[in-house]
Amino acid sequence: MARALHLLALLLAILLAPVATAQERGPVVLAAASLQESLTEAANAWAAKGHAKPVLSFAASSALARQAIAGAPADLFLSADEEWMDAVAKAGLLRAGTRTTLLGNRLVLIAPTSSKVRLTPARGFALAKALGAGRLALADPDAVPAGKYAKAALTHLGVWVGVAAKVAPAENVRAAMALVERGAAPLGIVYATDARASKAVRVVGTFPAASHPPIRYPVALLKASRHRDAAGFRAFLLSKQGRAIFVRHGFSAP
Q: What is the pTM of this model?
């Protein structure tokens, strides 16, 4: 149901964009939810060069990959992990030679700004005790990249079994952060860039990079794209100017 609603929202966003031809409207970009501020800034910078502003559709990479596979009209896909890009590639929907790693990120433990919790993510750390009767906000650990990275890190550190029953799964990483922002969960795990974008949470600790698979954001053109600006916008994102925008928002460049 959620996937169907998001696909409908994507179609409406395209249809309700300023009246123009498909070429004048700008390429449609399916992008991981954690890219909201940074990719919006990049799209604005691209438009400032005289191009039509790209239409950005943000959601969990899992939902976006399924939409692409289902035939959603789009030009580029930016995933928060390699696996969902692999799924789109396996369906034969990527334009050959256009897939590359755009960005990197870190995984952090967050709490509301008013929280006094102190924890250092390390082997056997007292996460379950810190949660008490509360829940741990995560993006869906069975499907969404941020949740999968979090589960991998907690498993590696030996604490997943102790907190699995306390997990509050969310549809994407921003939805998980929202649970912490409004106090519905005392702790959550998100990307460092998400925490940086919110004034309502603070970073309790950063997970060791070796505790989970490398967080990589691949980008690729979709084979069905016919937009004349799609390849140009991809090249801009990969350029020194484009990557500098993401770095200002806390991402790492490969």
A: 0.90
